[in-house]
Amino acid sequence: MNNMNNNMNNIRRPKRPSGWFQGAPLAKFLCFLTCASYLVLKNGLTELIALDLQDLVEHSEYYRLFIYHLAFGSTGETIMGMAVLAPLLKRFEREFGSKDLAAFLQKSLILATIFQCFFLSDTYLATGPYPTIGSTMYLYNKYTPRLYPKFVSVLGFDFSEKAITYFFAAQVILSQGFYSIIPFTSGYIAGFLATSPITPIGKWNPIPQFVYKLGQSIGMATGLADLSSTPAFVVNQGMNNRSMGLGGMNRRGTIARNSSGDTAQQQAPPQQAPPQQVFEAAPPTPEAIEQLTAMGFERDAVVRALSQADNNIEHAANRLLTG
Predict the structure, then answer these.
(1) Strand locations in 174-299, DSSP E?
(2) Where exactly are the structural domains of the chain?
(3) Rounded to whole angstroms, how far apart are CA atoms 79 and 77?
(4) CATH number given to 286-321
(5) What angle do CA 245, 249, 255 make, to 5 degrees?
(6) Choosing a second label site near 207 at 20 to 30 A (CA), which of 3, 27, 86, 300?
(7) Domain spanning 25-230: which CATH class is it, in words?
(8) CB burial class (10 A; 0-12, 13-18, 19+) of residue 239?
């Protein structure tokens, strides 16, 4: 009787809807920081944080190296930049976890800042998180599969669904011409080096452990910790995919490291469940096979990947891309 009452209470209790940033507290914090910084510096004050040769060398204003990426220079850049950056940060934080993404972004930013120093002149480079857009666009370009190669056709040319993200990113990258292309390109190259498993940079973590603990404390105080749980569909997606090996970064739900440095499976303790009827998976559909073979994969490998991924095209594409 008590079990029945508990079940009835669970049915009647409304479930709390998950927010857009659920599972991505770092992404929410970075987006809020960028927007807040722009509101503070929007009235022509972004020149106080921009990078240029004279202020760095002659005036020794080295603080600019640490804050130039905080705010965009205009309202249009902020809107378009957030439209590109927010979904990418949320996506990759859900897949790799806050800790790994924070290390990746920090490495990329350090490298991109060094690269930009070679292009400094008397004219300010564009302010804002252009290096972060560049590094996350590298992840998007390399590790996000094209699910629909013929999503849209323009003048006889076929484009995938990824073209939408590339289009909006191009609006931001070209907003200030050469002075915004340089920070973006620096970030893109830095993203490649930060994920390279064959260089020391790929395995280097520039963030001390106490910074992570401080971030957890701030998250608990500000409520960002409530966003740390990843929605179930994202966790399941990560557990169906293998590690991508991004310089030590793993998809969430595959392999994690505990406090002693050992690896452990991120799985809930086994629970007894009533026996369920087992159904055989349906064979891959011709449409799914055609989509993946159009991406350049062999038919046998496509059929095998679809069978292993329960005919989920995205999961199968990830399996094919990661070998």
Answers:
(1) 255-257, 263-265
(2) 25-230, 286-321
(3) 6
(4) 1.10.8
(5) 85
(6) 86
(7) mainly alpha
(8) middle
Which secondary structure element, helix H or strand E, spans residue 286, and what is its range? helix 286-293
pLDDT given at position 247: 53
Q: CA-based Rg of the chain, rounded to a whole angstrom?
A: 23
Q: Enter the tokens of residue 149.
A: 């190669």
- Give the pLDDT confidence score for residue 253 in this predicted structure: 42
The H or E element containing residue 94 is helix 75-96
Within 10 angstroms of residue 272's Cβ, the number of other Cβ atoms is 4
Determine the pLDDT at residue 281.
Answer: 60
pLDDT score for 221: 61
Task: Note whether 175 and 77 are within 8 A (CB).
Answer: yes
Neighbouring residues of 136: CB distance < 8 A, sequence distance ≥ 6: 85, 88, 89, 92, 191
**Contact (CB, 8 A) for 94 and 33:** no
Number of H helices, E strands in the chain: 15, 4
Segments in the chain below pLDDT 50: 1, 4, 8, 10-15, 226, 228-245, 253-268, 278-279
SS3 annotation, 209-234: HHHHHHHHHHHHHHCHHHHCCCCHHH
pLDDT value for 130: 95
Of the candidates 3, 129, 133, 119, the residue with the CA atom closest to the CA atom of residue 67: 129
pLDDT of residue 123: 83
